[in-house]
Amino acid sequence: METRGRSGSILHRFRSSGDAFHASLLITLLLGVWSAQALEVSVGKVPFVEAMNGSTVLLPCTYSSCIGIKNLYFNWQYNDNGTMQKLCEAVIPAEGIEPNVLILHDRVEFVGSSKRSNISILLKNITFEDEGQYICFARNPKEKNRNHSAIFTLFVVEELKEVDDTLTVIIMSVIGGVVGLIILIMILKSLILFLLRRGPEKNKECLVSSSGNDNTENGLSGSKTDNKATPKA
Ligand SMILES: *[C@@H]1O[C@H](CO)[C@@H](O)[C@H](O)[C@H]1NC(C)=O
Ligand SMILES: *[C@@H]1O[C@H](CO)[C@@H](O)[C@H](O)[C@H]1NC(C)=O
Ligand SMILES: *[C@@H]1O[C@H](CO)[C@@H](O)[C@H](O)[C@H]1NC(C)=O
Ligand SMILES: *[C@@H]1O[C@H](CO)[C@@H](O)[C@H](O)[C@H]1NC(C)=O
Ligand SMILES: *[C@@H]1O[C@H](CO)[C@@H](O)[C@H](O)[C@H]1NC(C)=O
Questions:
Q1: Which atom belonging to ligand 3 lies closest to the Cα atom of 118?
Q2: I need a labelling partner for 201 at 20 to 30 A (CA). Which of 30, 68, 73, 228 fits?
Q3: Please, what is the Cα angle at 23 between 22 and 27, to 5 degrees?
Q4: Is the keyword Signal assigned to this protein (predicted)?
C-alpha cells in the first residue's frame, strides 16, 4: 500500500513535469514533419570529386519530397567565378514522368531519371577550366516555390598518379607490416615450440639417462618446500 502510494506520487510528479516535455516533443515532431515535407536536393555524402583532365565525370544529384512533386523545376549551374552559367534545365511534370531536358552546354549529358528521383548529369572530356562549383537547383511549386540547392565541387588534376603513389606506398607498407608481423609471429611460435619441446625432452633425458639428475631435482623441490616453510614459521 505504502509503496504503491509512493510510486503513484512519483508517477504523478513525473507526469506533471513531463507535460511541458510532451508539449515540446509534439512541437519538435510537428516541425520535423513539416520540414520533412519540404523538397530536399542532395549531391551525396561526398560533395566533391577529383578527376583527370579529358575524363568524364558524373555530377550527382537527387531530390526527395514527402508531399510529392508537381512541375518540379530543376537546373544545373556552374559557378564561373561568381557568374552562374546554366548547364541544363527541365521541368518534371509529375513523379515518374521523364523530363524533357534542355541542354545548354556541349559536353553535358543528362543521365538522371525521375523514376529514381535522380537528376544527375555527365560532364564529358573535362578541362582544367571546368574545375569549380556545380549547383544542383530545384524548386517545387507545391511548396510555395521555395528554392533548394546543393553544391558539388569538381577538382581537375593532370594525373591521379600522386594519389596512387601515396596509396600504393600506404598499401605496400601495410602489407609489409602485416607480412613482417606474420613472420615475427611464426618465428616466435617456432621458437616457443622449440623451447617447449626442448624442456620436456631434457626432463625425459634426465629421467631416462641418469638418476643422479633426478635426485637433484627432488632435492631442489625439497629445498623449495623448505624455503616456503621457513617464512611461515
Ligand atoms: C591533361 O593535361 C596535360 C597538361 O596540360 C596534357 O599533357 C594531357 O595530354 C591532358 N590529358 C588529356 C587526356 O587531355
Ligand atoms: C575571378 O574574378 C576576380 C575578380 O572578381 C578576378 O580578379 C579573377 O582574375 C577572376 N578569375 C578568373 C579565373 O577568371
Ligand atoms: C543517378 O543516375 C546515374 C546514371 O544512371 C547513376 O550513375 C547514379 O549512381 C545515380 N545516383 C543515385 C544517387 O542513384
Ligand atoms: C576533348 O577535348 C580536347 C580539347 O579540349 C579535344 O582535343 C578532344 O578531341 C576532345 N575529345 C573528345 C572525345 O571530345
Ligand atoms: C529562387 O530562385 C530564383 C532564381 O532561380 C529567384 O529569382 C527567387 O528570388 C528565389 N526565391 C527565393 C525565395 O529565394
A1: 1
A2: 228
A3: 115
A4: yes
**pLDDT tens track for 97-147:** 999 999 999 999 999 999 999 999 999 999 999 999 999 999 999 888 789
Ligand 3 mutation target, pool 64, 118, 136, most atoms within 8 A of CB: 118
User: Domain coordinates of the chain in residue numbers?
Assistant: 40-158, 160-210
Mean pLDDT comparison of 2-6, 194-198, 206-210, highest-scoring range: 194-198
| Residue-wise pLDDT tens digits, 77-101 | 999 989 999 999 999 999 999 999 9
Best mutation site among 52, 125, 128, 130 for ligand 4, i.e. most ligand atoms within 8 A of its Cβ?
Answer: 125
